[in-house]
Amino acid sequence: MLPIALQLYSIRDDMSKDFKGSLQKVKKMGYDGVELAGLYEHSPADIKAMLSEIGLTPISAHVPYDVLMADPDGVLNTYKEVGCQYVVIPYMTEEYRIGAEKGQEALEGIRSLAEAASRHGLTMLYHNHDFEFLKVDGEYALDIIFKTIPEAILKTEIDTCWVAAAGVDVCAYLQKYTGRTPLVHIKDYIMEEGGSAEGAYELVGIETNNERKANKFEYRPLGYGQQDFPAIIQASRDAGAEWLVVEQDMPSMGKTAMECADMGIRYLESLR
């Protein structure tokens, strides 16, 4: 089994209430590392010290595109100080998606951020959702990003939930980016026939115009949804992944976010 990290967005409410205590719980569950989603008003030095004391590796950080573009050097220096190896563009708003009004501007921006990360000794990753699997001139938008920006400076963080929800073969897609996929998001879900993955964004506060209801889609703890994780994990290893990153955007099944995170790693341990 590859080392396992938790994307801390999964437990964001707990993190906001008790930052260090939440990290201690994550370590006690058995996670090897974390992917940051904000600093919660702590200094980079303090976070680095906490993680070192607790025994968690800060592998990466999700940082919004607009935040990165506003101060690339400052943001990259911050996460380098924390000890991250990777910085990840987690989401693009509608106007910045490939084929949209500012799509070309976004490609240029992503390239500039990837070049800046390289100068700082970091690696920029791009994390997908389902909307990058819309086709533009016959190609997936996500493939256009990775075709346009060199592999040497931009790598992938494939989110396996969104690949599957878009109707794409997860294992084949991981294989396509062999050698370019250091981190893989493993995330489980259920989606009823006729459901909309787009509706899931409403669960995390992003409004959509999709008439198909969000209750057709539900995030699940690993092993409690419809993903084939033994196959996905093997495909991740074959693609050269260094870490698996567990994420669950919203808790479900009547469980708390912490309980869902614990259920996820218990499931992964059962596969060892």
Q: CATH superfamily, please?
A: Divalent-metal-dependent TIM barrel enzymes
**Helix count, DSSP H or I runs of 4 or more residues:** 11
CATH topology: TIM Barrel
Q: Give the termini separation.
A: 6 Å
Name of the CATH first level: Alpha Beta
Provide the number of structural domains. 1
Into which percent range does the helicity of residues fall? 25-40%
Summarize the structure.
This protein is of the alpha/beta class. It has helices spanning 12-17, 19-29, 44-54, 65-70, 72-82, 103-119, 141-148, 160-165, 170-176, 229-238, 257-270, and strands at 4-7, 33-36, 57-62, 86-89, 123-127, 135-136, 139-140, 154-159, 183-186, 188-191, 217-220, 243-246.
What does this molecule look like?
The protein has 272 residues and is an alpha/beta fold. The chain has a single domain, classed as TIM Barrel, CATH 3.20.20.150. 39% of the residues lie in helices and 18% in strands. The chain has an 8-stranded parallel β-barrel, surrounded by 5 helices. Strands 6-7 form a two-stranded antiparallel sheet. The chain has a two-stranded antiparallel sheet with strand order 10-11. α3 links the parallel β2 and β3. The radius of gyration is 18 Å and the shape is globular. 41% of the residues are buried.
List the helices and strands and how they pair.
Layout: E1 4-7, H1 12-17, H2 19-29, E2 33-36, H3 44-54, E3 57-62, H4 65-70, H5 72-82, E4 86-89, H6 103-119, E5 123-127, E6 135-136, E7 139-140, H7 141-148, E8 154-159, H8 160-165, H9 170-176, E9 183-186, E10 188-191, E11 217-220, H10 229-238, E12 243-246, H11 257-270
Parallel strand pairs: 1-2, 1-12, 2-3, 3-4, 4-5, 5-8, 8-9, 9-12
Antiparallel strand pairs: 6-7, 10-11
Helix pairs in contact: 3-5, 9-10
